[in-house]
Specification:
The structure is a homodimer of 251-residue chains.
Chain A (H helix, E strand, L loop, with lengths): L6 E6 L7 H4 L3 E5 L4 H10 L4 E5 L2 H6 L5 E5 L20 H4 L3 E5 L1 H9 L5 E5 L4 H8 L6 E5 L8 H16 L3 E3 L2 H14 L5 H11 L1 H9 L2 H7 L8 E5 L2 E5 L3
Parallel strand pairs in A: 1-7, 1-8, 2-6, 2-7, 3-5, 4-5
Antiparallel strand pairs in A: 6-9, 9-10
Helix pairs in contact in A: 6-7, 7-8, 8-9, 9-10
Amino acid sequence: MHAITERPLAVHLLPALVTPEALAGGVVIMIDALRASVTISAALAAGAVRVVPTLTVEDAERLRGPGRLLGGERGGVLIPGFDLDNSPRAYTPERVRGKEIVFTTANGTAALLHARAAHEVLIGAVTNVSAIVARVAGEPRAAHILCAGTRGEITMDDCLAAGLIAERLVAAGRQVVSDDSARMCVGLAKLAAAHPGGLGAGVLGLMSESRGGRGLTRLGFEDDLRLCSTLDAVAVVPVFAGGAITCGRLS
Amino acid sequence: MHAITERPLAVHLLPALVTPEALAGGVVIMIDALRASVTISAALAAGAVRVVPTLTVEDAERLRGPGRLLGGERGGVLIPGFDLDNSPRAYTPERVRGKEIVFTTANGTAALLHARAAHEVLIGAVTNVSAIVARVAGEPRAAHILCAGTRGEITMDDCLAAGLIAERLVAAGRQVVSDDSARMCVGLAKLAAAHPGGLGAGVLGLMSESRGGRGLTRLGFEDDLRLCSTLDAVAVVPVFAGGAITCGRLS
């Protein structure tokens, strides 16, 4: 029997808590659980050719052109003059098939750029846990789960998604948790699983309680909150490379 | 009936995640759960007059003098030439009563200095949760729980202690959780409470699993790990003011 080498799995609760150099050469799973990770996944699942993330509204507007739609949000709502907001349910095949989406989301884009030296950058959420795990479980490189946070603050929704992915990666046998941030996120996943109503109810409960979840409820986006809290609801693996996000093959 | 104004309760998982200015005027509960918070508490409970924290070994050595003992650790063990290590069980009345303890612990001291603009700085741990809550519950100022971490890394042992304190402060009725970091720490406390063996077993389990807990086990300090994981085992409230830590009255 061949020895299976254990690979370190770290979770970074904010981009500021890890240097780009520490991510170099590894596989990074960027999480912006409410809602950018899910919206990007939904756009690709609905047939968008690619998603081009930009930090600012102005950067997005400069990329306006034929075959392109502008999406994203500021303050949780549609940016004036944009085609699409940050609601994954808005990215239907009718709207986005064959299109390129220029997408501006400050936290998620900054996190993606932070991971630019990584060997590979994937985008994860509650909605694609199994797909991410299937892709990363056999990975020989160090894995890093990078939570985007919100304006420099740690968010429980990102950390719960990180914990669900970390727990299953470890269960898959090759990755080993290498820091307490990962252990805490796995703790949140265990807390969700201990909910009397089951894991799904536990995940929805913690997501609703989170700062981002409260914000979505306040804005009337309860349906988005439910979708973003549903395990494996949008089972694609978005891959960020060369400035664009495309739909990853399941390896 | 008079309205009771709700007071914000924030948890900062590392000193680097909050500015000294943001702590100004508030009540800060600094946590270095394994083991400095407990060792300082134990020294005061055993009759030490005060504990003077220093960042470096050299700073501590400069304060050597009559009536003073030097304590602390580097790499978890006794510093050569020092009188006491960082084991709370070493701080017995026979050793420390009436003495001043010069104590060097890099993470805890840095966190205390970070909170220098606060109205009041208390030192918390699993071992004095009830005493801290009794003191802070009626507090009209904003409360901040400040986790020391270890060399810039978030530690689960600090976060669990933070969660146990935060959960009980909120239950006491006046404080309201103001950020997701606090919600996550409370989540760890709930996970501990959901342990089949009860809260005590749950706390010991998470503390043992933490990076600091693993380190203590490796060094043979299982008894310290158990003591530091025991709710209300050392029921004093250390107060940091004017460069020294003394035993706070229960207000």
